[in-house]
Write a structure and sequence with these properties.
alpha+beta, 3-stranded antiparallel β-sheet, two-stranded antiparallel ribbon, 5 helices
């Protein structure tokens, strides 16, 4: 099972335009303008893969960051109102933008995934929507060796 590393946004340095007037030799050079970029889509690979009606296995996909609307709209869905556990199925159907060669990913696709793939996607959703990861860097109080710990997350769709 492969996950794509989630990295903090990289700052891009914008070079000054060459059309700008030259500065006098004694003037200090202007500081470069930094522009932040935000990664909004993340690749993943399912542990087992979704099997479509034709028997094709789809494992590689892309999930985008969730919006407030993505988390609110499913709450009006009658299936979620009748069974709150269905929230993750509807939510994942909204944020998975690609899965293998499927033309469209929707909650019906997520509903028919293997439980291990659903659990993987729920964890991946938490990872990319919790400021990039659910791990924290810590240091051993005895030997001062740095390491990472996995932080327990709440249920998908809950804050």
């Amino acid at each position: 099972m492969r996950r794509t590393a989630v990295r903090a946004p990289q700052a891009e340095v914008e070079q000054p335009s060459q059309e700008a007037a030259p500065l006098p030799p004694s003037a200090p050079a202007p500081a470069p303008v930094q522009r932040q970029t935000l990664q909004t889509e993340f690749a993943f690979e399912l542990p087992r893969g979704y099997v479509d009606e034709a028997g094709t296995v789809h494992r590689e996909g892309v999930m985008r960051l969730s919006t407030a609307r993505d988390e609110l709209v499913p709450l009006r869905d009658i299936r979620v109102q009748e069974n709150p556990a269905y929230l993750s199925v509807v939510l994942l159907g909204r944020v998975i933008t690609r899965l293998g060669t499927l033309p469209l990913v929707h909650d019906g696709v997520v509903e028919n995934m293997f439980a291990s793939d659903l659990a993987f996607l729920q964890d991946f959703y938490r990872q990319i929507n919790a400021e990039g990861h659910t791990r924290a860097s810590v240091e051993c109080p005895h030997c001062a060796e740095p390491f990472e710990v996995e932080l327990g997350g709440s249920r998908l769709g809950e804050s």
